[in-house]
Specification:
The protein has 223 residues and is α/β, with parallel strands linked by helices. The protein has a single domain (8-222), classed as P-loop containing nucleotide triphosphate hydrolases (Rossmann fold, 3-Layer(aba) Sandwich), CATH 3.40.50. It has helices at 50-58, 104-109, 118-128, 144-157, 174-190, 202-208, and strands spanning 8-19, 22-34, 39-43, 65-70, 73-76, 89-92, 162-166, 194-198, 211-216, 219-222. Strands 6-7-8-3-9-10 form a six-stranded mixed beta sheet, with helices on both faces. The radius of gyration is 17 Å and the shape is globular.
């Protein structure tokens, strides 16, 4: 693995939102460099901008200033803003957005539908995330924790360059978390997937993360 210091390189990102006549600054000259294959955890108080940071990286928010480079390709700067769907970035959010008209297997295979080995890949990821028994169920038949694992499986199976996780295990019980943490870490390592995770759970940090940062006053501080 080519673990360069700047596989993901974020420089001086400024993000603010306009509220009537007031500009609310969320990210202030935020910078972060991440090695390929690293798992980075980000904590911080509610409203500190953690989710806004993930949304900026994947293109769902447009910073006022700064630069985002992924694998030597510019994703965002003053002149360039690559569309979200072209960044090869996976995003798993708390809302567990699944296609309601597709069952679990179809949801997982959606992004790899043209691959001949799609069934093999989906079977493997379902087994590792303990959701084989849910393959024919539809989203309305799943619990919150089950939906979260399906959303995670759908993102991982596409083998993105970068995986962004926003409180990805919030709906899972402690016993299940302990079981699947090693599997998730193994999957990410095998596929050389770099990961940024927003969390409040230090157990997740200890089990998964290589580094921990705290987001405070719009900037990241390594812990």
């Amino acid at each position: 693995m080519n673990r360069t210091n700047k596989f993901l390189d974020i420089k001086n990102i400024k993000l603010s939102f306009d509220n009537k006549d007031l500009e609310i600054m969320v990210l202030r000259n935020l910078s972060l460099s991440v090695k390929e294959g690293d798992f980075i955890a980000i904590t911080g108080a509610s409203g500190s901008g953690k989710t806004s940071l993930l949304r900026s990286i994947c293109g769902l928010e447009s910073p006022k200033e700064g630069q985002i480079i992924l694998d030597n390709s510019i994703m965002f700067n003053k002149e360039i803003s690559i569309p979200t769907e072209q960044r090869n970035i996976g995003l798993v959010i708390q809302e567990k957005v699944l296609f309601p008209h597709m069952n679990t297997r179809q949801n997982i295979e959606f992004g790899i539908s043209k691959r001949n080995d799609k069934n093999e890949l989906s079977n493997e990821i379902m087994e590792k995330l303990k959701i084989q028994q849910l393959s024919e169920k539809y989203p309305y038949q799943l619990s919150g924790g089950e939906s979260q694992r399906v959303a995670l499986a759908r993102s991982i199976v596409m083998k993105p360059k970068l995986l962004l996780l926003d409180e990805p295990f919030s709906g899972l019980d402690t016993e299940l978390k302990t079981t699947i943490y090693p599997e998730i870490k193994s999957i990410l390592n095998e596929n050389k997937i770099t990961c940024l995770m927003v969390t409040h759970d230090l157990t997740e940090v200890k089990a998964l993360a290589d580094k921990l940062f705290n987001l405070e006053s719009g900037k990241l501080v390594e812990i």
